[in-house]
Amino acid sequence: MTQHAEPAVKTPPASGPGQSDGRTAQRSLLVKTLARPEVGVFLGAVAVYVFFLIAAPPVREASAMANILYQSSTLGIVTIPVALLMIGGEFDLSAGVGVITSALTASMLAYQLTLNVWVGVVAALVVSLAIGFFNGWMVVRTGLPSFLVTLGTFLILQGVNLAVTKLVTGNVATDDISDMDGFDQAKKVFASSFGIGGVQVKITVFWWLLFAIIATWVLMRTRYGNWTFAVGGNKDSARAVGVPVAFTKISLFMLVGFGAWFVGMHQLFSFNTVQSGEGVGQELIYISGAVIGGCLLTGGFGTAIGPVFGAFMFGMVQQGIVYAGWNPDWFKAFLGVMLLGAVLINLWVQRTMTRR
Fold first, then answer.
1. What Cα–Cα distance (Å) separates residue 145 from each residue in 97, 110, 140, 151, 152?
2. Burial level of 168, CB count in 10 A (0-12/13-18/19+)?
3. Taking CA 184 as the corner, what is the angle to CA 182 and CA 192, rounded to the nearest 5 degrees?
4. Beta strands in the chain (DSSP E)
5. What is the pLDDT of residues 30-53, one digit of tens each?
6. How far is residue 131's CA from residue 58's CA, in Å, rounded to a whole number?
7. Element (DSSP H or E) covering residue 192
8. CB of 222 within 8 A of CB of 86?
């Protein structure tokens, strides 16, 4: 009669496949924590802040921090939707000049037609959303890379901004609108300040943080957030499971248009006039802020909080160099170092997540 014997030697529990010692568990938790896209940029932001606390003593003052946060907010308001678009797998190179386009539209329409400035504000919003819709529609309709589509839009807007402004005003800048109806109310919304502990803080800081909270909630808690990650990861697979790919991508481009409009309104009501040749190069800073914030260039990965710290790093470096009394040209060098470091960290994060 055949008998089935039990194994004579059993594997010790400590070396079982589902068990590990405390040190291995701790290392695993540490790796998982560091692999979060916002953790690396947060540590980087802390390091940059500490560096300038030592190198530039004026940074220690509350008023200096208010200026740094203001500088960061004007970048961060656009960087957040740019980051969402990158999570969705696309780029927008027209965001920088789009800011100026919105400001020019609001200013010239209100001034030339002698309208309440709010009419120009609403018209500028429509134009900005239309630019975003055009970019998204072209990408979805043609299948061309968003890099090429938005590069074309960038060149078109750059030329139109200069040519139309010269044609309408006879100058490269718009006319002063500070004495027009509705200006004071619009300034309160887009460019006012409020006091905190005796320090004046720009309202853009509040809007920046509010938009970050909303974007985080949308990404983490809504179906639209799932769609954004899905189309950025693999749009064909996303379409196969019922994700509205065209709607998601077009709406993400329109969100970038909204961010550009908001910052454009801030610039208009802060300075009362707009230089038509500005905005060139800002699109690279927005994209860099998103990359530094943990958004992968391949799409499908990232957060809305990471780009907040990314924008803060930009503001910290840009203002910190001034407070340290250094040549402002060093900002570009710092920008390149931060971007390269962020790309390497993102590559490590991507490989770590793939292994696990």
1. 20, 36, 9, 10, 11
2. middle
3. 135
4. 193-196, 199-202
5. 566 656 667 778 888 888 889 889
6. 41
7. none
8. no
Contact 208, 72 (CB under 8 A): yes
Q: Minimal CA–CA distance to 140: which of 80, 82, 88?
A: 88
Rounded distance between C-alpha atoms, residue 220 and residue 207, angstroms: 20
- Answer yes or no: is pLDDT of 12 > 50: no
Q: Tokens standing for 149? A: 């589509």
Distance CA 191, CA 263 (A): 10
CA distance readout (Å), 125 to 27, 223, 285, 287 = 49, 26, 22, 22
Is there a contact between 232 and 88 (Cβ–Cβ < 8 Å)?
A: yes
Looking at the chain, the whole-number percentage of residues with pLDDT higher than 70 is: 86
DSSP code string of 15-54: G-TT---HHHHHHHHHHHHHTSHHHHHHHHHHHHHHHHHH
Q: What is the pLDDT of residue 354?
A: 58
Q: Please tell me the pTM assigned to this model.
A: 0.87
Distance CA 122, CA 130 (A): 12
Give the whole-angstrom CA distance, residue 130 versus residue 127: 5
d(CA 128, CA 98): 7
Q: Tokens 């002063």 appear where?
A: 176
Two structure tokens written together for 28: 């695993």
pLDDT one-digit tens code per residue, 160-198? 999 999 999 888 899 999 999 999 999 999 999 988 888
SS3 7: coil
Which residues are CB-neighbours of 183 under 8 A, at least 6 positions away?
Answer: 117, 177, 269
